[in-house]
Amino acid sequence: MSRDEAFLQITGVAKDYLASDAGAPLSILRDVHLQVRRGEVLSIVGPSGSGKSTLLNLLGTLDRPDRGTLMLDGQDLSQLDERELARTRNRSIGFVFQFHYLLPHLTVLENVLVPSLASEDARARSGAPERAERLLKRVGLDHRLDHRPGQLSGGERQRAAVVRALINQPKLVLADEPTGALDQKSARELGSLLRELNREEGITLILVTHSLELARGMGRVFELMDGTLVESK
Amino acid sequence: MAAMAPKPMPTLLGMLRSSLRFHARSHLGVVLGAAVGSAALVGAFLVGDSVRESLKERARERLGPIAYAMSTGDRLFGRAVKDRLYHVLKVQPDPRPAVGTYQVIEANEVGLPPNALLTTGGSNLFAVAIGETNRMLTIAPALQLPATVGRADGAARANAVRLWGVDEAFQKMGGPSAISQLGPEDVLLNEALAEHLQAKPGDTVLVRVRKPSALATDAPIAPKEGDAVAARLKVAGVVGGRELGSLRLTSGAGAIFNAFVPIASLQRRVEIGDKINTLLASSLDLRVYHRSAWSDWRSRLSKLPGNLGRFVDDAPREHRARMPDAETLEQLRRAFAVSVNLDDLDWQVRSVPSQDLVEWRTSRIFLDQAVTDAALKAPPSGFISDWSVTHRPYGVLTYLANLIRAGAHAAPYSMVTAVDPVRLAGLPADLGDDEICVNQWLADDLQVKVGDSVEVSYFLPESGADLREGTNRFRIRAILPMSGPTFDRTLMPEFPGLSKAETTRDWDPGFPLVHKIREKDDQYWKDHRGTPKAFVTLAAGQRLWANRFGGLTAVRFPYAKPADGSDTSWLRMGEVMKALQTLASGPVPRDPSGRAGGLPDQLGALALDQLGFRFDPIGTQAMRGATSGQDFGGLFIGFSFFLVIAALLLVALLFQFGLEQRLTEIGTLLAMGFRPSTVRRLWFGEGVVLAVIGSTVGIVGGWYYAKALIWALTNLWSDAIAKTSLGFHATPVSVLIGWFSAIAIASATIWLALRRQFRRPARDLLAGEIEGPRNSGRSRGWWVGTVAGLLALALVVFALRKQDQANAPVFFGAGSLFLIAGLAFTAGWLGQLRTRRGRFETWDLAVRGTARRRSRSLSTAALLACGTFLVASIGAFRMDAERDAWLRSSGTGGFALIGETALPVSRDPDTDAGLEAFGLGRGDVEGVAFLPFRVRPGDDASCLNLNRAQRPEILGVDPERLVSRGAFTFAQLAKGLSVTNGWQALSPDDPRSTEGSAVREFPAIGDAASIQWALGKKIGDALELTDERGRPFRLRLVGGTANSILQGKLVIAEEVFKELFPGESGYRFFLIDAPKARSTEVSATLGRAFQDVGMELTPAARRLAQFQAVQNTYLSTFQVLGGLGLLIGSAGLGVVVLRNVLERRGELALLNAVGFRQRNLARLVLAEHAALLGAGLGIGLASAALAILPSILSAPGDLPWRSLGLTVIGMLVLGLATTWWATRASMRGSLLSALRGE
């Protein structure tokens, strides 16, 4: 794979955190390198505290690296200001968190449509309701459109969160322990759903998980060890 | 089946609505907090409305339809002036109030007929009228005199009574309907007086009233005795406020005592003929209506600026509009000028045919200098058109010399005339100012010849009733014959008690005759009456005898006798009378209601105003006083300050808690690409909606809160408003202002709460982290605490080293700094606790728990500390009038009693003669000393008067007598004064008095609080006023006494007072020194002795306490409302406890699971929050103790320890109870369920 083909390229990324008692900074990511192709699925595993979520936050532009560069679809994310980063997040990145983070006061459909509200693309916004209903039907939630999150099961909430991540047709979906709060059956179903959606929608999917079973079904698997990313063979 | 249309896109507004609905229950607290804040603000504004509207009601009740008044005191004029005014003004009496006040603009501005009037309301033309036939004005003549009224049995007496002689015109103006039925022996009392005397219809009261005198009692050679008359009158009825029972021309605090009698009977009793001293006038109203021709003017009217050309009403109908003050006053002034005659002015013109002259004189003896100057300085052709230049008028001043002595020979009681020697034939034209001409009789009597010296002794004209003598030496220039122009008995003015006496034995002057009157003196009197025995130059005479009442006793108008020797004296007399009339009136048009032209000539312009014949717009002044007085709205916003702050902190806390529960929502939206500003606006919008809802609910609360405060002000705190009756009033504007303010500050609070959360990164928010690790607060806390603490310490050390322990503001400042230091150290300590290592015990869990949510803990402690500080320290500002009351430096000035008389006392009672006049000897009043003040009545400028004083009462005193006593303490003196005692700044020769200003300026001293609050001024400012003659002058406020009995008055030097207000005779205000142990006895003695002048005696400490009650009551109000704030603060503490426990329910459950008993855990939580409570109260109390250190050091026994102690214990108990309740509520049920995630 040549460098030119890379959809996402991480080069020498490092991230430190200051300790709460003003002691020496804690180095979470030291020297991370990664190249991801468009439409690829990969998973990142590692023990707790290894920096998986930190790496995902950096990929999702929710945080900035202390060192190194992040290129998304040829764009250097470190060069973007907060406004452009927000736009990039809205257009190009979808998030699925361990907890669904659906807004409790909105219906399932409304929750799914929330990212469209932030979109500056009027055309995308106008087609969003139709797409949302289609995707929700696709994930088996067409009978839950007007339900609030509190009325759904854990698996249903997480499926709704997946649809919300896809509503703006992002190029990259980042999933942070998406099955962490689900039972085994629901976790398995969600894993399948993510793979199917990857195929159907052509999105690039990066998944952070503890679950080796889930990771193995996701193409390349990387392990985060001592602040660096190592591909598991 | 057709496919269903996709659902529409949600919107941000829709999200906001859903969120509000979904979180409604958790928003309830925020709404309630905003409602409390709004209630406090709206309520405060409504209190302002209520006080303002009530004062306006009182003013309307006090004056009824009376809009203008002329009150001339002792200067009387004929009652017929009223009828002449009606005639001249062409008005009909009709006291009904005008519908509104409209601006009348000149019709000819737009080319309308010259007699057309346009009335406008705001920028809209209101109506057009043609003609002058619809002018309405009611005028009521009155004779008002100071009086005392007592019960016939002597059981009660009121000293400061205004006795009104009124007629049917007063009744038409809304006065008592019983006036027309009153008999000559009847009197009507107003409600306050009847209540004070416990008098009812049918009772007999004893009324004592001072006779008005053409001659001021202070004038030289004026009678000092026998100026009061008494009468037994039957109470015919009691007059309520609706019938002008509370009529008073100035605003003031306290009860108004009025009595009404028929004007004719009062005039008879005081022997003044048909004279009056007051004219009351309603507004000059115009009845205006459209005319058919007015449509022709439409195009012309459209040329007027703004919307003036827009007619609001095309239908022909009648409107009644009030003329503006300025125009009405000008018309009244012009009309009065042509309505008075020479008799009204006490001017007499007589012919002296033997001298070929006409003489102008007055029964007041001295002609006012303003008019004599005008008459003498005017070009003859301007005054009397055909008067010969060679016969210009000249002035004469004749005065009584008590003794003319030459060596061993002396002649008693001789008239001496001062005149320009050039103008009186027979005198050497070059008579020097140190020379005198004596007639042959006197030369023989004194056995003197030309060149000898004589000594002339006379009463100093400004010594008033004290009758101090002055002496001047003259050299005899000529001996005058006992005939010719210089031997003229008409030169003597009509001295009362002298001029009509046939022999010297009939003399009844106003002074003791101490020099022996010999047989030959009596014979001279019999033969030649008061023919002057000596002449000096006018300059010399005026230097000795000119005074504030005037510098001439006559102006003479010589004329050339026709060649045919015919007597033209009657013609010349008519010319002089006409000229004097012009002098008084000015050559005004005969029809003063004419709208064209102004006063063309300086002569007429000056005369009447300068003589005190001036209408004042008392209606407007009263309304201005009512609306510009103390702003109770602002005052109660101040009082409710802590309540509002507490409510806002509660809003902030509750909103913050709601926000913290929804941090992941914010994080999610940010992660989905929403811009932080959009998300912040979304949340802020939610907060604003809550603020609007809360503030709207608060309007209802504010309505009842204001009603409660008005009730408290009239019942519990009535001292603060001098027992003024208040009613509840609300204006939409105030409600709206309160509502908007509440929304604005609640929204701002919410914005601040939001701002902090939105500074945090989305990853933290997604992680649900409530407070991120921050270290800066700790170090900043120590740093701020150290600086503030050192500053507080420095202030205290500075004040103690300067022995300035009475400087309350310095200590209050130190206390405030200490409070800041305490809270800053607490912030630092909380920061340290979070990272503390080492010791770990069970109770450490509690203490360190407080550090988990540092800002939350700090807010709670700060709220409690501030509340405790304010409530505890403010109590120490209470004032005790009795404390040190005998010290000269105290607010009483060390004086034991204050005496106020209804009638003026002409002799200084601090002299033996003054005491004797009241039948007292030194032995009767041993150890008693008087400090007399002259009084120019005016608005009460004390804090007891809620109206803004427009014309404050002015006192005149000899400053040296205050300097020598070292009385009172000055809170502040004007910058640049080089005086060792503040009273020295009153000295009239202070260069400030005249320096560089066309308007005369004099120094004045008042009570610092009165200057600030009642007058709305500060030291160094000047008050623009007019003197008795209508001339403007300025009082520069050079000093303010601290919390003194001089509240409500401005003090100026007596010399200045006499110059400004020569008609205010005698003394009416006294500060009296008396031995502390005998002050009650002295009060009784003086009360009896000064009964005839109606002396009201008040212990100085009691008067001071009345003034201080206002401030003390305000402090109580502040404390009560501050206490309410603390209640909310305690509620805030409870909410914090609830929130903390709910957040940590899992942790507590774990502790429960590992073996801690639930009861112990409750204690742990209680201890944790009790620590916060303790910190808040401790810091607040320690700071308060520092703030009140002066009181603790100076008089620890005087501190209100009990109330302070109760307040602190109350706060502690309340705080603990709230914490205990909140702990119990939050830990109810099984904690272990939390572990199971239930």
Task: Using brief descriptors, characterize the structure shown.
heterodimer, A: 233 residues, 6-stranded mixed sheet, 10 strands, globular, B: 1238 residues, alpha+beta, 37 helices
Cα gyration radius of chain B (Å) = 39 Å
Shape of chain A: globular
Q: For the residues shown, what is the average pLDDT of chain A?
A: 85
Helix vs. strand class of chain B: alpha+beta
Query: Whole-Å distance between the termini of chain B?
Result: 45 Å
> Portion of residues in helices of chain A?
25-40%
As a percent range, the share of strand residues of chain A is 25-35%
Note the main sheet of chain B.
Answer: 10 strands, mixed
Strand elements of chain A, count: 10
- What percentage of the residues of chain B does DSSP assign to strands (E)? 15-25%
Structural class of chain A: alpha/beta
Mean pLDDT figure of chain B:
80
**Overall geometry of chain B:** elongated
Alpha-carbon Rg of chain A, integer:
18 Å
Q: What is the distance, rounded to the nearest whole angstrom, between the alpha carbons of the first and last residues of chain A? A: 17 Å
Number of helices of chain A: 7
Largest sheet of chain A: 6 strands, mixed
Question: Can you offer a commentary on this structure?
Answer:
The complex is a heterodimer of chains A (233) and B (1238). Chain A has helices at residues 52-59, 82-92, 108-117, 122-138, 154-166, 184-201, 212-216, and strands at 6-17, 26-37, 41-45, 67-72, 75-76, 93-96, 172-176, 204-208, 220-225, 228-232. With 233 residues, chain A is of the alpha/beta class. The model of chain A has no long low-confidence stretch (mean pLDDT 85). Chain B has 1238 residues and is of the alpha+beta class. Chain B is 42% helix and 19% strand. Chain B has 37 helices and 36 strands. In chain B, the strands form six sheets. In chain B, strands 27, 28, 29, 30, 31, 32, 33, 34, 35 and 36 form a ten-stranded mixed β-sheet that branches. Chain B has a six-stranded mixed β-barrel with strand order 8-9-13-10-12-11. Chain B has a six-stranded mixed β-barrel with strand order 20-21-25-22-24-23. Chain B is elongated. The A-B interface holds A 18, 20-22, 57, 60, 62-63, 82-83, 86-91, 93, 95, 97, 99, 101, 103-106, 109-110, 113-119, 125-126, 128-130, 132-133, 145, 164, 168 and B 6-12, 14-15, 18-19, 21-23, 664-665, 667-676, 678, 761-763, 766, 773, 775, 834-835.
